[in-house]
Design goal:
Chain lengths: 285, 290
């Protein structure tokens, strides 16, 4: 069994970590699936995500995560499986079970992943393939992921924290030791990520050689659009030397998630804005 | 019955009297934009008769990469309505419409003329609409042996099969968007302006073979490849990966070829997490940015 990822705070959540295995809630969906019913499965998940109050970006993330795990069960397991969703006050807990044969021993103890493109078209066959992307994406978007394979099949469990009231998204600027500190408060998600991107673009235009501290201490939840905004912001900074950016005050779960999904290497991380400013100020122009 | 398509819009030449059938407005604008673009590039005068206002028609062409404004300003391009050309009020006369066409052909002289005609006018309460087959027959005779090509545009969902069959015989070619996959969940078709493919609906690994064929044909053409996913609500990881693998495989030629991925923000984020922005050839464009 592999387990990775602690529950992360939902947008606005300041309470206990959601997805606590000890609080598994009540079942709201029990649906069998096979290759022909993956669309219906996605539609059901989207409906329950919306009903549970997941913001649109997080709902899309839940749908892709469930789909990838269900598709794995269809393609590499018995060809069919079952999805059960339980809802607690704090999280949606999704179990995707596959009653079929476990993956070959060579795939270790994780679910088997797609290893080839599903085509024999000559040009397509030359395209590079990398196994594991589906599962990697699940780990990037879910709060908690666990996979267990055995003689009776594979059980994948993912949890998505539910939103509670919290501060709205807000960006604040300040100067610190010749650096620009941009502090993010609230959720960084589908609704807010474009504002962060536009603000960083503007700062880059206004300030050649920008030294930017992106202070995420007040971050309260994120979705894949928010994560993508951090990645593309770093890439814009990289493309504008000598501009530099340091991410400061990351919530523990985000830091752990970035590390476990190989995204941390893209960024320079610091514990606090002061430490980040110190890092940037000590670098030569 | 629908008219079988045997020609790509980009293969039309002078002399053609082609019948384009389309199923949705996006197809109509896409195919028309390619027809107009190729005509302008070839130095021909180009005219598009449609129910759209000139501003809308021009905007739709410009959105698909056609340099419509300068061509309009120079008189090389005209986007006009039916009145005074095919119709006089709500009356259609094959003879008068042909007389108008003849004048336009003469006015274009040796430069040649490309004429696209949206036939939706014939769906309205028009007196004389029964002369439509006669008109098509006369157009076929008029353009034979000239430097003029005419593209008649029929909505296959709205024209009845009898009418489509009655006019089919008078066209030298039939044209439709190349479609690689079409069912209630998903449509994968070629996009002509800008060149690439268009994906609509929900796409998962079960349609990977169709996607591979569409991508393979798109990247065999020269120039940038647009993957228009604006109407796509879902894409799974294997299909997203296939698109990115195709982008990685674009030859490092001069000038460099790009793959433009146009999609909703949540799908764009999925591509970013899968490494799209690490691929030099990829440009991610929000579907909100027209």
């Amino acid at each position: 069994m592999t387990t990775d990822g602690d529950a992360r705070p939902a947008p606005g959540d300041t309470g206990p970590a959601p997805g606590n295995p000890g609080n598994q809630g009540h079942q709201i969906l029990d649906q069998a699936f096979d290759a022909g019913s993956l669309y219906a499965l996605r539609a059901a998940v989207a409906a329950h995500a919306s009903d549970a109050g997941l913001p649109p970006g997080r709902a899309d993330d839940l749908v892709i995560a469930v789909h990838e795990l269900a598709a794995n069960a269809v393609r590499h397991g018995a060809g069919h499986g079952r999805l059960r969703i339980r809802r607690s006050d704090q999280a949606l807990l999704c179990e995707i079970s596959d009653d079929g044969a476990p993956p070959p021993a060579s795939t270790t103890n994780e679910t088997a992943e797609e290893t080839t493109n599903q085509t024999d078209t000559p040009d397509a066959a030359q395209w590079r393939t990398e196994p594991g992307h589906g599962l990697a994406l699940v780990r990037q978007v879910a709060d908690q992921t666990s996979l267990r394979s055995g003689p009776s099949g594979t059980l994948a469990t993912i949890s998505f924290g539910l939103a509670t009231s919290g501060p709205p998204f807000r960006l604040n600027h300040r100067d610190l030791d010749h650096c620009t500190v941009l502090a993010v408060t609230g959720p960084l998600d589908l609704a807010s990520a474009s504002e962060l991107s536009q603000t960083i673009d503007r700062l880059l235009t206004e300030t050649p050689g920008l030294k930017l501290v992106l202070d995420l201490d007040g971050l309260a939840g994120w979705d894949s659009v928010g994560l993508a905004a951090l990645i593309t912001a770093q890439q814009r900074i990289n493309a504008s030397p000598p501009a530099r950016m340091v991410l400061a005050g990351l919530p523990d779960h985000l830091q752990k998630q970035l590390r476990q999904t190989q995204m941390a290497d893209r960024f320079t991380l610091a514990d606090s804005s002061a430490a980040a400013a110190g890092t940037l100020s000590s670098e030569p122009q | 019955m629908t008219i079988g398509a045997d020609t790509q819009i980009t293969d039309l030449t002078v002399n053609d009297h082609a019948c384009l059938t389309f199923g949705e407005p996006e197809d109509l604008f896409d195919l028309t934009a390619a027809f107009v673009r190729d005509g302008l590039d070839g130095g021909l005068k180009v005219m598009w008769l449609s129910a759209a206002t000139p501003d809308r028609a021009t905007a739709e062409l410009a959105r698909r990469g056609v340099a419509a404004e300068p061509a309009l300003a120079s008189g090389q391009l005209a986007a006009v309505g039916f009145e005074g050309r095919l119709l006089a009020g709500q009356v259609f006369s094959a003879g008068q419409a042909l007389a108008w066409l003849t004048r336009e052909m003469e006015a274009s002289g040796d430069h040649g003329l490309r004429l696209a005609v949206d036939m939706s006018w014939a769906l309205g309460p028009v007196t004389g609409v029964e002369q439509l087959p006669e008109f098509e027959e006369k157009v076929a005779a008029a353009v034979a042996g000239t430097a003029v090509s005419v593209l008649c545009q029929y909505d296959r969902e709205r024209f009845d099969p009898v009418t489509l069959a009655s006019v089919a015989a008078f066209h030298t070619r039939s044209v439709a968007a190349a479609t690689y996959h079409a069912d209630v969940m998903l449509r994968i078709c070629r996009q002509y302006a800008p060149p690439g493919i268009r994906l609509a609906g929900e796409l998962d690994y079960q349609a990977a073979e169709s996607l591979a064929l569409a991508l393979t044909e798109a990247i065999r053409l020269e120039g940038d490849v647009t993957v228009n996913m604006a109407p796509l609500a879902f894409i799974d990881v294997p299909c997203a990966r296939m698109i990115l693998d195709a982008a990685r495989g674009l030859n490092p030629s001069t000038p460099p070829r790009r793959m433009i991925l146009r999609c909703r923000p949540s799908l764009a984020a999925r591509f970013v997490l899968l490494g799209a922005t690490d691929i030099p050839a990829v440009s991610l464009v929000s579907a909100d940015d027209h």
